Amino acid sequence: MESPYVFHLSPVMYQGKPSYEQFGLLHRAIISGMYDKIEIDLSKYEYMHPSFAVLIASSLYLGDKYGKEVVIRYDIGNFRLCQFLKQSGISGRYYSSKDNSQLSSRNSTIPFNRFRRIEDTYTTVEKILNCAPVRLNRALRNQLVSKFTEIFSNSFEHGKSDIGVFCCGFINRANMFSFSVYDAGIGICTNVNQYLPAPLSSEKAMEWAFDKTHSTLNGIVDYPRGAGLNLLESFARLNHGRIDVVSNDAYCKIGENIRKFYKLKNPIVGTIFSMNIHADNSHIYQMT
Fold this sequence. Notes:
Elements: E1 5-8, E2 12-13, H1 17-31, E3 37-41, E4 47-48, H2 53-65, E5 69-73, H3 79-88, E6 110-115, H4 122-131, E7 134-136, H5 138-157, E8 165-171, E9 176-183, H6 188-195, H7 202-209, H8 226-238, E10 242-247, E11 250-255, E12 258-263, E13 271-278, E14 280-285
Parallel strand pairs: 1-3, 2-4, 3-5, 7-14
Antiparallel strand pairs: 6-8, 8-9, 9-13, 10-11, 10-13, 11-12
Helix pairs in contact: 1-2, 4-5, 6-7
């Protein structure tokens, strides 16, 4: 029997280019014809940002799409890793056959899940707002429900992923809530360049997509751009939070005083939207 290809993720993975490029390498290994079985090795885990849980778990579905067996290897004696798997809900679906044990995922906030229809995401959108450790007035809450629903909608409409749309989120030890929405579709940059008469660089294509005056559907609802993205961006900055959008080989980081586009050496499959919301009970966030 052919030995599996073991893909080692770094023990510590923060948000940023180096980590996204590691997942780009993982996706390359999955979609290439070089390996029939791939093991994602988490045995050296020390820390991983919560937003990456959705990329770990969805890799098994991506493997199925390309006829590969993808498994997650972990050490049940690694307490921090077991907490990560439990909080993210990954351990509720997958376990190590070596020790034949399964960890409880009941403490997960928004356990990893796959959606096949937009209608199935509505409850999760409400749960995202319920889990966010902030106080919102009714008008802003309604607007955020609309924009988060739009993120899922765009993943279905534009991503064209035939394996569904994935979501995961939880509150970490720093009392920060992070959630991610991922689709393994064609990606924003590819979608834009298929629409435009002349192709743009990946960073410029993503920047074009986020402009409120642009749409690849000629006026029909597009990905969270313009006023929609601006609302999420404004909220993230007020909260001292962060938004990351990665699609193909483009990466947009939105923070307190930054909105910057980067090019990745190793593209990921599809698009991931991640948002960090810090705990804040001292303010009531509202529409202005």
